[in-house]
Amino acid sequence: MIKVKNAESYLKIKIADADVIKKVWETFKDFCKEAIEGEEDKEILFQCGVYDFTGEELFHFDFVRQFTVYEEDEYSRMEQLHCEFLFKPTDELRKLEVSEWSMDYDDINDFLNHIENLQEFKIPLNLKPIKSEIYQEEV
Description:
- The protein is an alpha+beta fold and 139 residues long.
- It has five helices and five strands.
- It has helices at 7-15, 21-33, 91-94, 108-116, 119-125, and strands at 43-51, 58-71, 74-87, 98-101, 131-138.
- Strands 4-1-2-3-5 form a five-stranded antiparallel β-sheet.
């Protein structure tokens, strides 16, 4: 079983040969269904929009899996594993902004299908990002 501390390296190995966003998404979807040690609920987030987190306005297209970490049965922290793609904002991308959590759906497959039908998902899917990154951070 995958441990939270190994999730980032595990996903990076799985995605290593994925050269387009569609392939990363397919791998990420499979990863969303895998069990993580100590995980009670699957917490998956799809978010996108134009933000200036880096000091420069960029369109962020982000698949996230969130983990609630317990140590000795006590809540410790939350961590998020991101598959993030960055784009130069265009007029079309500036119109796109969404934040959808899997916990708002009865079933993980319903959530994933819903995401795939969003215009906010479909439009950037075939574009070439200026940067992509997989990283895990405490939130």
